[in-house]
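Protocol step 4 of 6.
Sequence for Gfo/Idh/MocA family oxidoreductase (Agromyces albus) entered exactly as in the expression construct, tag removed. Do not edit the line below.
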Amino acid sequence: MSVPAQLGVGLISVGWMGRLHSRAYLAAAHHYPELAARATLVMAADPDEGGRQHAADALGYRQTTADYRDVLANPDVDIVSICSPNFLHHEIALATIAAGKPFWIEKPMGRGVRESSEIARGAATRGLVTSVGFNYRHAPAIAHARRLVREGAIGTVTNVRVAFMADYSADPSGALTWRFQRDRAGSGVLGDLLSHGADLAQFVVGRITSVTAMTETFIAERPLPRANAASHFSKGDDSDPKGLVENEDYAALLARFDGGAVGVLESSRVAVGPRAEYALEVYGTKGSLRWDFQRMNELQLADGGSGYRTMMMAPDNGEFARFQPGAGTGMGFDDLKTIEAYLFLRSVLENRQLAPSAADAWSAAEVVDAAVRSAASGKWVDVPDVDGPTTYDAALEGSSRR
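Step 5 output, structure tokens:
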């Protein structure tokens, strides 16, 4: 048996998502042993000493640095994970492209269409495969839903409902971190959550062609952040000075799809009650289906006259068999990132785009941008198509099981 080759990983930013990327690279070797290469953790960059210490001691990176440029210059680094805050994505992604290294980047990829398109076009010009953190599309229930819809099991799709409702910013004492500042985050819940919803809708149903939207900011001021406050879970109190929230807490869109379907997409980061209610519903002339991340391993399907039946995901659905032996034993969030790591590694090895691409992120950014413009004008706005290698409209490959 041949010894697998090695792909050296460089990590930029050792926060929650950077740590998850690192674990996912290592887990991919366990769940996909046939991969022709193994990821090895070579170098991690973070300006925070604690992050660098964690990268070395807990994650096992060979080297650490405060400067991300050291990662890109390291000849042992073959692929790069970009897990920095939104306002650094563009600079770091373009530098990674200039270094000629494939990259896995979190979303929103850019702070808007301009940054996202420059990243996607730059990667395509250099012939680099990419991966973007649209992890919800990797749920086995979503893979099964996509197959049912694309194969006509529920007939012609008539309408779609997407609801990404969360409470992570519902507390008014939550600090005014970079996520609430337009020049650092771009849009608010549109880019943070509804870009996931737009990607899910396009992945299952097809491209969104036009939208009309409204947005609202319900918590207008927040406490200025204290030292080292970076997370949207960071808190202040009533005695702290306040600053203005510059982007939206809530968004609602009406949408048209290129197949003739219509849809409603809604998202909030300040909803009191839902913790992570990320739901997709697709209605057709012969049936409908419903999925909610809170019950990730279930798909509700109505394909007859007796209402919904709940389908527990099983080894013949998506990548389920890689993680669990039978229905009833559930997968988790981290498993979705392991699938994403696998798709990225396989994309690099085969030099073809299998993971969610930078062009997919650009496409989602076009939906977000159209929503922002529509909310300002009160009009329907067309969503431009993108000219990169999107995967939401790619042919179904089926499971990767060999």
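Step 6, annotate. The chain has a mean pLDDT of 94.
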